[in-house]
Amino acid sequence: MRIEPVFLFDLDGTLVDSVYQHVLAWKEALDAEGIDLSVWRIHRKIGMSGGLFTNQLLRETGLDISAERSERLRQLHAAAYRKFGAQIRPLPGARELLSWLSNADIRWAIATSGRMETASVNLAALGVDPAKVPVVTRDQVKYAKPDPDLFLAAAERLGCSTETAVVVGDSIWDMLAATRCRALGVGLLSGGYGPDELRQAGAIRVYDDPADLLVHIDEVGGRR
């Protein structure tokens, strides 16, 4: 009996070209709070939850980040990110990949560490209606990546187990979460992480971007 795969996609840096807008939005939020953190350090944390971002920030700066300040940072980031909304574009091949999967009757869902207040900007750019497509955001789970909750919830929305799923993401946090829920992790370079980093975090295959993945879709369970 053939096991039909399902695809669970991260959003930022995987389907939409938005990682660096998130970096700049976090930089603006941190600057507004008088917190000095290098841009490259911010980039290394994109893909994890805002709560974990704050924990990492505390570890690196030694600052006392109260719950109130953490929430203020989140709101400042969301406001700054929305200003970049007009710049957000789908990554090459993203729409074509999702369309191909749908036409091939292969189920797919989106699972993002972002809350809907920022994810809605990306979904609009991608042309995905969350009323018609399973989309799981940080608002809907207890823990975000690298915990597996987002992918577990997305698989549940599709009525399947993560053990039959292919998780597609651009960050080490996606690959770690995929490993923890026994899914196959496929990494994309479109978020700025290197191929060795993604493989060390659990990726079984690494491609440039959604367009490259579509060309090689048969390698990860999509039959042409």
TrEMBL record:
GO MF annotations, alphabetized: sugar-phosphatase activity
Q: Which residues cross the membrane?
A: none
What name appears for this protein in its UniProt entry? Answer: Haloacid dehalogenase superfamily, subfamily IA, variant 3 with third motif having DD or ED/haloacid dehalogenase superfamily, subfamily IA, variant 1 with third motif having Dx(3-4)D or Dx(3-4)E
Specify the domain of life of the species encoding this protein: Bacteria
Report the source organism. Enhydrobacter aerosaccus
Taxonomy of origin reads: Bacteria, Pseudomonadati, Pseudomonadota, Alphaproteobacteria, Hyphomicrobiales
What Pfam families does the database record attribute to this sequence? Hydrolase (PF00702)
